[in-house]
């Protein structure tokens, strides 16, 4: 199973690296940590949402209608914001943050989702993008890829994505001593419309 | 045996000699290098052959190797363990970020065109990329990457792709190497200056790091926020590159070599001079504007018509993974990459079992 996961994870890492290399970015500037970019704030989220809306990017997820349940709040239709798990604590402190357990119907939340701020729904991963010691004060810079529908694509050049290949020992030789496991793919991640994706860069509070 | 891969090759060392990077996609577990030139010359006190395999690490934790070195009379060959400058494995995507320098943070950056950075311990070569952090008086360039355009090791180096005249010189701060380009080409770059081209109706856009754009590529200019004055109008403007590296003029960045700019089909003559930022008309947003979002050139695609007219490949904009794994060979009389003009042969292998 490890190899299967590794293949899929490599696909994700390559897509991540492509977005970090080429996508437009906006620095968070609304925070107070003295760095550049600053920590994530509501005004920065509003800036990136406004930029995506201005560029006519379609949201990916539908709104979640409000319901008569304590502690819940309706969720707007949203762009995806793909980011690192290190940011979860900072997100909790952003004005207007809605935890996914506060959604009127939590089953509508994705497994990797952390919550929503404005028109962004944040999906976190331990392999999310960060640029080591790259801020003005040499802190790690976290890249939050805020993307609209069809902003980027993964082109499968041979018509398949990562394929898991297992060869039992019988194929190794007359003595059937060694099995082999691996994965391969010929795949290119590509931004299809640069206006529909923004990298919102921030540091930790 | 399955899973065993052997590769071989040769190269000729440059003059002056420099460390050589070999990109070996299949990776390597061992490597042997022969300095054919020095062997043929029967040179004294020189490395003839070098061997490395995984696990060879010296007490300092550095990857090293074994050197087969001729003695002073060139009458015998002795084996010796390399202390440094031997074999270093490279992964251009996943690597330990180099430390900030200088250790005490006493770094002087002039407010000039080009800015000169004084560091008695600098060892940079022209073309390398550095990132500045914690500059006390020029925070506006903190976190930005710059190509080194001149260098005097042990004294200073120059970042000639920005004009910092009328800013306040820094007395403290740090720099660090940025050893590799981002993984994917084409790469987004930081804008440091925009002016009108010598050809009417076109703009000349300078960038902090040596750009790799080509004529015919389409790019988008990003100047977000309010710090860019009249040039904010260029935010989100998509344009085509019609020329590259046009000769500098006036107050444009002076890198003393090939001018690092692209010429695009946008008329900026009505936007006034670029260098009007902050006190004293600076050529980059003033320290007081920090923090802000740097202006960027973002690759978009290819203008096929322009590419055909200019006789260049219409696929120059292709997204390419430029990441690699391989090995860095140290240069010198006792380094596997040899001395100037040496002919080097090598064999490298990936073993079935390590």
Give a quick summary of the entry.
With 205 residues, chain A is α+β, with helices and mostly antiparallel strands.
Characterize the structure shown:
The complex is a heterodimer of chains A (205) and B (354). The radius of gyration of chain A is 20 Å and the shape is globular. Chain A has helices at 2-22, 42-54, 88-92; strands spanning 25-27, 79-84, 98-99, 113-117, 120-125, 130-131, 141-147, 152-156, 163-167, 180-184, 187-191, 197-202. Chain A has one domain. Chain A has 3 helices and 12 strands; from the N terminus they run H-E-H-E-H-E-E-E-E-E-E-E-E-E-E. The mean pLDDT of chain A is 93. With 354 residues, chain B is mainly β. Chain B has 3 domains: 5-92 and 324-350; 108-177, Ubiquitin-activating enzyme E1, FCCH domain (Elongation Factor Tu (Ef-tu), domain 3, Beta Barrel); 185-321. Chain B has helices spanning 36-40, 304-310; strands spanning 5-12, 20-23, 30-35, 47-53, 66-70, 77-81, 87-91, 108-109, 116-118, 129-133, 145-147, 150-152, 156-158, 174-177, 184-185, 189-196, 203-207, 217-222, 237-244, 261-264, 296-302, 320-321, 325-329, 343-350. Chain B has a 6-stranded antiparallel β-sheet with strand order 1-24-3-4-5-6. In chain B, strands 16-17-20-19-18-21 form a 6-stranded antiparallel beta barrel. In chain B, strands 8-9-13-12 form a 4-stranded antiparallel β-sheet, with no helix packed on it. The longest helix of chain B has 7 residues, at 304-310. Chain B is globular.
The ordered H/E elements of chain B are EEEHEEEEEEEEEEEEEEEEEEHEEE
The domain tally of chain A reads 1
* Helical content class of chain A: 10-25%
Of all chain pairs, the largest interface belongs to: A-B, 35 and 37 residues
- Biggest sheet strand order of chain B reads 1-24-3-4-5-6
From the alpha carbons, calculate the radius of gyration of chain A and give it in angstroms.
Answer: 20 Å
**C-alpha termini separation of chain A:** 37 Å
* Largest sheet: number of strands, sense, barrel closure of chain A: 8 strands, mixed
Radius of gyration of chain B: 24 Å
List the domain count of chain B as a whole number: 3
| Span between termini of chain B | 14 Å
Number of strands of chain A: 12
Which class best fits the helix and strand makeup of chain A? Answer: alpha+beta
For the report, how would you describe the main beta sheet of chain B? 6 strands, antiparallel
How many β-strand runs of chain B?
Answer: 24
Mean pLDDT of chain B: 92
Q: Could you list the spans of chain B in which at least 5 consecutive residues all have pLDDT below 50?
A: none
